[in-house]
Prior knowledge:
Elements: H1 2-17, E1 22-28, E2 31-36, E3 50-55, E4 63-67, E5 69-75, E6 92-98, E7 115-123, E8 126-128, E9 134-136, E10 145-151, E11 161-163, E12 171-175, E13 187-194, E14 202-206, E15 208-209, E16 212-220, E17 234-247, E18 249-253, E19 258-262, E20 266-272, E21 300-301, E22 307-309, E23 317-329, E24 337-349, E25 358-365, E26 370-377, E27 386-388
Parallel strand pairs: 5-14, 16-25
Antiparallel strand pairs: 1-2, 1-3, 4-9, 5-27, 6-7, 6-10, 7-8, 10-13, 11-12, 12-18, 13-15, 16-21, 16-22, 17-20, 17-23, 18-19, 23-24, 25-26
Amino acid sequence: xxxxxxxxxxxxxxxxxxxxxxxxxxxxxxxxxxxxxxxxxxxxxxxxxxxxxxxxxxxxxxxxxxxxxxxxxxxxxxxxxxxxxxxxxxxxxxxxxxxxxxxxxxxxxxxxxxxxxxxxxxxxxxxxxxxxxxxxxxxxxxxxxxxxxxxxxxxxxxxxxxxxxxxxxxxxxxxxxxxxxxxxxxxxxxxxxxxxxxxxxxxxxxxxxxxxxxxxxxxxxxxxxxxxxxxxxxxxxxxxxxxxxxxxxxxxxxxxxxxxxxxxxxxxxxxxxxxxxxxxxxxxxxxxxxxxxxxxxxxxxxxxxxxxxxxxxxxxxxxxxxxxxxxxxxxxxxxxxxxxxxxxxxxxxxxxxxxxxxxxxxxxxxxxxxxxxxxxxxxxxxxxxxxxx
Length: 389
């Protein structure tokens, strides 16, 4: 009875307004959808809250017959940090789209009036979403529209990516509460000033990394070991490394493709226990012979996986604390060995940080001191293979 009454009401309303130029606005669970008379829509009746009609103006989007479809060029998930990959396994993007009467847009005052956080997911070998949105039509020769996407899609159960439903700006919030958890890597991409004639109406977006990546490596100071390598009776092993100073939350502007807001709170990235590389992990009060290989005169990774973080350009300092041991076997000693514990903290001035960059911090461990070197790569390396679906 509810369905029949709704259909009857719609029929009477359309008959009343047909002589004038009106646009039907359907109010559903997650916003509104403009549908009548040019768009083709399919909406479950129980999702409809209200149907209203608004007189067509110059700013009203008129839809044509060409559906907007999507294809994402995505970084292969199997090459990601194992701590970050699972959340991207379901392959979902949130898409915002802006239309300014067919004119080109810039980076300022962009509103998602064509699509707002539309869920686009990979199903049966292709990207799909519902209900379908059609390319706008007007008398502008090129008739441009612009698209902005991110992944993973913000939905229930995803507590690290959020969308502000009260704003039409294409901005997302990222919360990095625990760097050791399975929080998802954050991707973004855009296609600005596209038309339905490009790729037969298919919007092709190349994904990029919104986070930066930090790799921690360690090496023994050659000038303090008296030769090209450590004495065979000495091992340098690591108990813990802590890094503090990166923001726990930030807002990413998909239009400007940059981070714009940061929380004053910082997170601590701790590498210890099972997160430490096994061949560097201190074995406790044991002889050097019973310790792992340890830190050598060549660079070795400290953690089992890199740390992904929000690159804040305004905060230049981080604090690095390292606890490490030097164990030397000596048969003249009562225990047969001697152990020295070092706990050293340093404040590091970082270079300008960029999203999508990989940064390498090298800890140069001496007998009583630590030096730090920083390198930056423009990309995440050849193992981050690009695939196209």
